[in-house]
Amino acid sequence: MSRVQTMPMALLAAGGATGADVMGVLRELGFDAVPIDGKDSINDFGEPVSLCLVDLCENGNALRIARAVRSQHPAAIIIGVADPSRPHAAAEAIRAGVFDVLPRPPSARDLQALIANAQEQAAIAAAAMPVRIGELPAYGVVGTSAAMRPVMELVQRSAAGQCGILICGERGSGREMIARAIHAHSAHRDSPFVTLDCSASEPEDVELQLFGVLVKRGSNAPERRSLERVRGNSRLQESAGGYLLLENVAELSARAQARLVRVLRDREIFNEEVRERVGLAVRVLASADASITTA
User: Fold this and answer.
1) Of these four, 61, 74, 234, 294, which has the most CB atoms within 10 Å of its CB?
2) Any idea what DSSP says for residue 86?
3) How confident is the model at residue 41 (pLDDT cuts 50, 70, 90)?
4) Structural domains of the chain sorted by starting position, each given as residue range(s) with its CATH number in brackets
5) Residue 219, CA distances (Å) to 203, 222, 230, 259 in order
6) What integer is the mean pLDDT of 89-106?
7) What is the rounded CA–CA span in Å between residue 87 and residue 93?
8) CA 22 to chain centre
9) b (16+ CB within 10 A) / e for 22-36
Protein backbone atom coordinates (compact mmCIF):
# COMPACT_ATOMS: atom_id res chain seq x y z
CA MET A 1 0.00 0.00 0.00
CA SER A 2 1.46 3.34 -1.09
CA ARG A 3 0.69 6.23 1.26
CA VAL A 4 2.03 9.75 1.74
CA GLN A 5 2.51 9.96 5.49
CA THR A 6 2.57 13.41 7.08
CA MET A 7 1.29 12.44 10.54
CA PRO A 8 2.16 9.54 12.85
CA MET A 9 0.17 6.46 11.84
CA ALA A 10 -2.33 4.83 14.17
CA LEU A 11 -4.01 1.53 13.32
CA LEU A 12 -7.54 1.02 14.61
CA ALA A 13 -9.05 -2.44 15.04
CA ALA A 14 -12.55 -1.62 16.22
CA GLY A 15 -15.96 -1.58 14.66
CA GLY A 16 -19.37 -0.03 15.22
CA ALA A 17 -19.85 2.96 17.50
CA THR A 18 -16.56 2.31 19.32
CA GLY A 19 -14.61 2.51 16.07
CA ALA A 20 -16.27 5.79 15.04
CA ASP A 21 -15.69 7.36 18.46
CA VAL A 22 -12.03 6.31 18.64
CA MET A 23 -11.36 7.38 15.05
CA GLY A 24 -12.41 10.89 15.96
CA VAL A 25 -10.27 10.89 19.12
CA LEU A 26 -7.18 9.74 17.19
CA ARG A 27 -7.59 12.45 14.58
CA GLU A 28 -8.10 15.01 17.34
CA LEU A 29 -4.71 13.94 18.74
CA GLY A 30 -3.01 14.39 15.36
CA PHE A 31 -2.78 10.77 14.17
CA ASP A 32 -3.37 9.44 10.68
CA ALA A 33 -5.99 6.90 11.79
CA VAL A 34 -6.27 3.83 9.55
CA PRO A 35 -8.91 1.15 10.21
CA ILE A 36 -7.83 -2.49 9.87
CA ASP A 37 -9.93 -5.62 10.04
CA GLY A 38 -7.48 -8.49 10.40
CA LYS A 39 -3.93 -9.70 10.85
CA ASP A 40 -3.18 -9.98 7.12
CA SER A 41 -3.90 -6.29 6.44
CA ILE A 42 -1.01 -5.27 8.69
CA ASN A 43 1.40 -6.51 6.02
CA ASP A 44 0.17 -3.73 3.73
CA PHE A 45 1.79 -0.99 5.81
CA GLY A 46 5.42 -0.29 5.06
CA GLU A 47 5.53 2.93 7.07
CA PRO A 48 6.30 2.86 10.80
CA VAL A 49 3.23 2.38 12.97
CA SER A 50 3.25 4.63 16.04
CA LEU A 51 0.05 3.47 17.71
CA CYS A 52 -2.45 0.63 17.51
CA LEU A 53 -5.81 0.55 19.27
CA VAL A 54 -7.69 -2.73 19.52
CA ASP A 55 -11.23 -3.23 20.78
CA LEU A 56 -11.05 -6.24 23.10
CA CYS A 57 -14.72 -7.07 22.53
CA GLU A 58 -13.45 -8.51 19.22
CA ASN A 59 -11.90 -11.30 21.34
CA GLY A 60 -9.42 -13.49 19.43
CA ASN A 61 -9.19 -11.23 16.38
CA ALA A 62 -8.10 -8.24 18.49
CA LEU A 63 -5.39 -10.27 20.21
CA ARG A 64 -4.15 -11.69 16.88
CA ILE A 65 -3.82 -8.13 15.57
CA ALA A 66 -1.99 -7.03 18.73
CA ARG A 67 0.52 -9.88 18.41
CA ALA A 68 1.08 -9.15 14.72
CA VAL A 69 1.68 -5.44 15.36
CA ARG A 70 4.04 -6.25 18.23
CA SER A 71 5.98 -8.58 15.94
CA GLN A 72 6.18 -6.33 12.88
CA HIS A 73 6.29 -2.92 14.60
CA PRO A 74 7.98 -3.49 17.98
CA ALA A 75 8.21 0.24 18.74
CA ALA A 76 4.44 0.76 18.36
CA ILE A 77 2.31 1.53 21.40
CA ILE A 78 -0.59 -0.95 21.57
CA ILE A 79 -3.61 0.07 23.63
CA GLY A 80 -6.76 -1.92 24.28
CA VAL A 81 -10.31 -0.66 24.78
CA ALA A 82 -12.54 -2.81 26.98
CA ASP A 83 -15.44 -2.97 29.38
CA PRO A 84 -13.96 -2.21 32.85
CA SER A 85 -16.14 -4.95 34.37
CA ARG A 86 -14.14 -7.63 32.50
CA PRO A 87 -10.67 -7.66 34.15
CA HIS A 88 -9.70 -10.99 32.55
CA ALA A 89 -9.84 -9.31 29.12
CA ALA A 90 -7.12 -6.89 30.25
CA ALA A 91 -4.96 -9.76 31.53
CA GLU A 92 -5.21 -11.58 28.19
CA ALA A 93 -4.38 -8.38 26.32
CA ILE A 94 -1.24 -7.75 28.39
CA ARG A 95 -0.02 -11.25 27.50
CA ALA A 96 -0.55 -10.40 23.83
CA GLY A 97 1.65 -7.31 24.07
CA VAL A 98 -0.91 -4.59 24.84
CA PHE A 99 0.65 -1.81 26.91
CA ASP A 100 -2.50 -0.84 28.80
CA VAL A 101 -6.30 -0.93 28.60
CA LEU A 102 -8.73 2.01 28.64
CA PRO A 103 -12.41 1.78 29.58
CA ARG A 104 -14.93 2.17 26.76
CA PRO A 105 -15.42 4.79 25.39
CA PRO A 106 -11.91 6.30 25.69
CA SER A 107 -11.56 10.06 25.97
CA ALA A 108 -8.92 12.14 24.19
CA ARG A 109 -7.50 13.17 27.58
CA ASP A 110 -7.11 9.60 28.85
CA LEU A 111 -5.67 8.36 25.57
CA GLN A 112 -3.17 11.22 25.39
CA ALA A 113 -2.08 10.58 29.01
CA LEU A 114 -1.64 6.87 28.31
CA ILE A 115 0.42 7.50 25.16
CA ALA A 116 2.65 9.89 27.12
CA ASN A 117 3.03 7.26 29.85
CA ALA A 118 3.98 4.61 27.31
CA GLN A 119 6.56 6.88 25.70
CA GLU A 120 8.01 7.71 29.12
CA GLN A 121 8.23 4.02 30.04
CA ALA A 122 9.95 3.27 26.73
CA ALA A 123 12.50 6.04 27.34
CA ILE A 124 13.19 4.74 30.85
CA ALA A 125 13.61 1.19 29.55
CA ALA A 126 15.97 2.35 26.78
CA ALA A 127 18.12 4.29 29.24
CA ALA A 128 18.20 1.58 31.89
CA MET A 129 21.08 -0.86 32.25
CA PRO A 130 20.06 -4.39 31.16
CA VAL A 131 19.21 -6.57 34.15
CA ARG A 132 18.90 -10.32 34.11
CA ILE A 133 15.61 -11.65 35.43
CA GLY A 134 17.41 -13.64 38.10
CA GLU A 135 18.84 -10.40 39.53
CA LEU A 136 15.46 -8.75 40.06
CA PRO A 137 13.88 -8.86 43.52
CA ALA A 138 11.30 -11.65 43.31
CA TYR A 139 9.50 -10.99 46.63
CA GLY A 140 9.03 -14.68 47.31
CA VAL A 141 8.70 -15.66 43.63
CA VAL A 142 11.45 -17.96 42.38
CA GLY A 143 12.14 -16.49 38.97
CA THR A 144 15.24 -18.39 37.92
CA SER A 145 13.59 -21.71 37.04
CA ALA A 146 12.54 -22.42 33.45
CA ALA A 147 8.89 -22.61 34.51
CA MET A 148 8.93 -19.26 36.31
CA ARG A 149 10.87 -17.19 33.78
CA PRO A 150 7.78 -16.48 31.64
CA VAL A 151 5.90 -15.51 34.81
CA MET A 152 8.56 -13.01 35.83
CA GLU A 153 8.71 -11.62 32.28
CA LEU A 154 4.93 -11.09 32.45
CA VAL A 155 5.34 -9.43 35.86
CA GLN A 156 7.77 -6.92 34.37
CA ARG A 157 5.50 -6.18 31.40
CA SER A 158 2.48 -5.79 33.68
CA ALA A 159 4.43 -3.45 35.96
CA ALA A 160 4.93 -0.99 33.09
CA GLY A 161 1.20 -0.41 32.61
CA GLN A 162 -1.63 1.11 34.61
CA CYS A 163 -4.56 -1.19 33.78
CA GLY A 164 -6.16 -3.60 36.21
CA ILE A 165 -4.71 -7.11 36.39
CA LEU A 166 -6.49 -10.35 37.36
CA ILE A 167 -4.14 -12.96 38.89
CA CYS A 168 -5.61 -16.46 38.74
CA GLY A 169 -4.48 -19.50 40.68
CA GLU A 170 -5.35 -21.77 43.58
CA ARG A 171 -5.14 -20.40 47.11
CA GLY A 172 -1.60 -20.70 48.40
CA SER A 173 -0.09 -20.58 44.90
CA GLY A 174 1.55 -17.18 45.48
CA ARG A 175 -0.99 -14.79 44.00
CA GLU A 176 -0.19 -12.02 46.50
CA MET A 177 3.54 -12.44 45.89
CA ILE A 178 2.97 -11.93 42.15
CA ALA A 179 0.95 -8.78 42.91
CA ARG A 180 3.70 -7.45 45.19
CA ALA A 181 6.31 -8.21 42.52
CA ILE A 182 4.29 -6.19 39.96
CA HIS A 183 4.18 -3.28 42.41
CA ALA A 184 7.89 -3.57 43.25
CA HIS A 185 8.95 -3.56 39.57
CA SER A 186 6.75 -0.59 38.65
CA ALA A 187 7.70 3.08 38.50
CA HIS A 188 5.47 3.52 41.58
CA ARG A 189 7.27 1.03 43.79
CA ASP A 190 7.41 3.60 46.62
CA SER A 191 3.64 4.15 46.53
CA PRO A 192 1.18 2.43 48.91
CA PHE A 193 0.35 -1.26 48.45
CA VAL A 194 -2.94 -2.05 50.21
CA THR A 195 -4.72 -5.42 50.39
CA LEU A 196 -8.31 -6.42 51.08
CA ASP A 197 -9.53 -10.03 51.30
CA CYS A 198 -13.04 -10.03 49.85
CA SER A 199 -13.81 -13.42 51.44
CA ALA A 200 -12.68 -12.63 54.98
CA SER A 201 -15.88 -10.94 56.21
CA GLU A 202 -19.56 -10.55 55.43
CA PRO A 203 -20.22 -8.80 52.08
CA GLU A 204 -21.38 -5.55 53.71
CA ASP A 205 -18.32 -5.49 55.99
CA VAL A 206 -16.03 -5.87 52.97
CA GLU A 207 -17.87 -3.07 51.16
CA LEU A 208 -17.53 -0.87 54.26
CA GLN A 209 -13.77 -1.53 54.43
CA LEU A 210 -13.38 -0.80 50.72
CA PHE A 211 -15.36 2.48 50.62
CA GLY A 212 -15.57 3.51 54.27
CA VAL A 213 -19.33 4.06 53.94
CA LEU A 214 -22.32 1.98 52.87
CA VAL A 215 -24.68 3.50 50.31
CA LYS A 216 -28.23 2.24 50.17
CA ARG A 217 -29.15 2.92 46.59
CA GLY A 218 -32.61 3.77 45.42
CA SER A 219 -33.79 3.84 41.85
CA ASN A 220 -33.71 7.62 41.31
CA ALA A 221 -31.60 8.97 38.45
CA PRO A 222 -29.69 11.66 40.43
CA GLU A 223 -28.17 8.99 42.71
CA ARG A 224 -27.01 6.96 39.74
CA ARG A 225 -25.29 10.00 38.24
CA SER A 226 -23.49 11.08 41.43
CA LEU A 227 -19.92 10.19 42.36
CA GLU A 228 -19.29 7.36 44.78
CA ARG A 229 -19.05 8.38 48.43
CA VAL A 230 -15.79 7.34 50.10
CA ARG A 231 -14.32 8.05 53.53
CA GLY A 232 -10.69 8.60 54.50
CA ASN A 233 -10.45 5.37 56.50
CA SER A 234 -11.27 3.24 53.45
CA ARG A 235 -8.95 0.92 51.57
CA LEU A 236 -9.51 3.01 48.45
CA GLN A 237 -8.27 6.18 50.13
CA GLU A 238 -5.36 4.35 51.77
CA SER A 239 -4.21 3.11 48.34
CA ALA A 240 -4.55 6.51 46.60
CA GLY A 241 -1.63 7.00 44.23
CA GLY A 242 -0.63 3.36 44.58
CA TYR A 243 -1.91 -0.20 44.32
CA LEU A 244 -4.94 -1.98 45.77
CA LEU A 245 -5.02 -5.78 45.77
CA LEU A 246 -8.48 -7.33 46.06
CA GLU A 247 -7.94 -10.94 47.10
CA ASN A 248 -10.63 -13.48 46.18
CA VAL A 249 -12.40 -10.79 44.17
CA ALA A 250 -15.17 -13.19 43.08
CA GLU A 251 -16.53 -12.92 46.63
CA LEU A 252 -17.04 -9.15 46.30
CA SER A 253 -20.76 -8.37 46.19
CA ALA A 254 -22.37 -7.24 42.94
CA ARG A 255 -23.20 -3.86 44.49
CA ALA A 256 -19.61 -3.30 45.64
CA GLN A 257 -18.32 -4.34 42.21
CA ALA A 258 -20.62 -1.82 40.53
CA ARG A 259 -19.44 0.93 42.90
CA LEU A 260 -15.80 0.07 42.25
CA VAL A 261 -16.31 0.13 38.47
CA ARG A 262 -17.75 3.65 38.79
CA VAL A 263 -14.77 4.82 40.85
CA LEU A 264 -12.31 3.43 38.30
CA ARG A 265 -14.30 4.92 35.43
CA ASP A 266 -14.76 8.39 36.96
CA ARG A 267 -11.34 8.56 38.64
CA GLU A 268 -13.07 10.82 41.13
CA ILE A 269 -14.94 10.29 44.40
CA PHE A 270 -17.04 12.34 46.77
CA ASN A 271 -14.99 12.56 49.97
CA GLU A 272 -17.30 12.35 52.98
CA GLU A 273 -14.93 14.23 55.32
CA VAL A 274 -14.24 17.30 53.18
CA ARG A 275 -17.63 17.11 51.40
CA GLU A 276 -16.23 17.70 47.93
CA ARG A 277 -15.10 15.94 44.77
CA VAL A 278 -11.59 14.51 44.96
CA GLY A 279 -9.51 12.87 42.23
CA LEU A 280 -8.52 9.28 42.98
CA ALA A 281 -5.80 7.46 41.05
CA VAL A 282 -5.33 3.84 42.09
CA ARG A 283 -4.28 0.72 40.19
CA VAL A 284 -6.39 -2.28 41.13
CA LEU A 285 -4.99 -5.80 41.09
CA ALA A 286 -7.31 -8.71 41.82
CA SER A 287 -6.81 -12.37 42.59
CA ALA A 288 -9.19 -15.28 42.14
CA ASP A 289 -9.32 -19.03 41.71
CA ALA A 290 -8.48 -20.22 38.21
CA SER A 291 -12.10 -21.34 37.77
CA ILE A 292 -13.22 -17.69 37.42
CA THR A 293 -11.97 -17.62 33.81
CA THR A 294 -14.44 -20.35 32.85
CA ALA A 295 -17.38 -18.92 34.80
Assistant:
1) 234
2) -
3) low
4) 9-127 (3.40.50.2300), 135-294 (3.40.50.300)
5) 21, 9, 20, 15
6) 76
7) 10
8) 18
9) bbebbeebebbbbeb
